Each structure stands twice: as structure tokens, then as C-alpha cells.
Amino acid sequence: MRQEPEGFPEFWGVWRPHARHTDGRGLARQAFEKHLKDGACAQDMIDGAKHFFRTMKDRDKEFVPLCATWLNRGAYEELAEAERAWNERVAQRQQQTSNVVTMQVVLPKNHFQRQNRA
């Protein structure tokens, strides 16, 4: 069995659920490895793929490019930064709401009924 480049199993885990049936792991692995050798960061490719699929509209899901084609276009380069910025915003929102206390008030059954005033 061929040794997979570092980060590829995680990348393929993101890509595979959305891939076409003709999208092969072997070509994807070769493209991933080529980009690593050319100086790309594995985490950039992983984050780029996450952002690509998270922001994809339903009507575009049938037009997912082959993984190797997507990698060779360098599409992950800008998308990786966008994914990290989005994750940062989500983390900030969660932190802002982490100190919110949920309160529950029990009201009588007839609380919202109009009262007859004579």
C-alpha cells in the first residue's frame, strides 16, 4: 500500500462525500503530493476544501470539479484564508454568547387569556 502524504486522509475525508463517482483517490493523492512538494501547506488545502463545500449552493453540487483539477487550479489558496476568517468569527460569536444564562419562567395556564372586565 502506498504511503499517503501528511494531511491527505483529512483532506480526502472532506472531499470524498461530495466527489463524483469518477473522482479517483489516486489522482487526488498525486495532485496533493505535488502541491506539497511545491511548497503548499496541507492545512491550506484542507481549509480551502472545507470552505469550498460549505459555501457551495445546492444547485452547483452536480458540477463539483475533479479533485486533482481543483487542486491544480490553486483554488484552495484564497479559500483557506476565507475559511479561517469564518471559523474565527464563529468562535468570537460563541465566546460572546457563552456567558448568557437561559432563564425559564413558569406562567399560569390562563396567563395569555383575556380577562373579562365588567
In terms of topology, how is this protein built?
Layout lengths: L7 H8 L9 H13 L4 H13 L12 H6 L3 H22 L21
**Could you give the order of the helices and strands?**
HHHHH
Tally the structural domains: 1
Instruction: Give the tally of β-strands.
Output: 0
Helix content: 40-55%
Strand content: under 5%
Radius of gyration: 23 Å
- Flag low-confidence runs: none
Shape descriptor reads elongated
Return the average pLDDT rounded to an integer: 88
Structural class: mainly alpha
Total helix count?
5
What composes the largest sheet? none
* Ends apart, CA distance between termini: 87 Å
Which terms would index this structure?
118 residues, 5 helices, 53% helix, 0% strand, elongated
Structure description:
It is a single chain. The protein has one domain. 53% of the residues lie in helices and 0% in strands. The chain has five helices and no strands. Helix 3 packs across helix 5. The longest helix is centred in the C-terminal third of the chain and has 22 residues. The N and C termini lie far apart (87 Å).
What is the structure about, briefly put?
Helix content is 53%, strand content 0%. The chain has helices at residues 8-15, 25-37, 42-54, 67-72, 76-97.
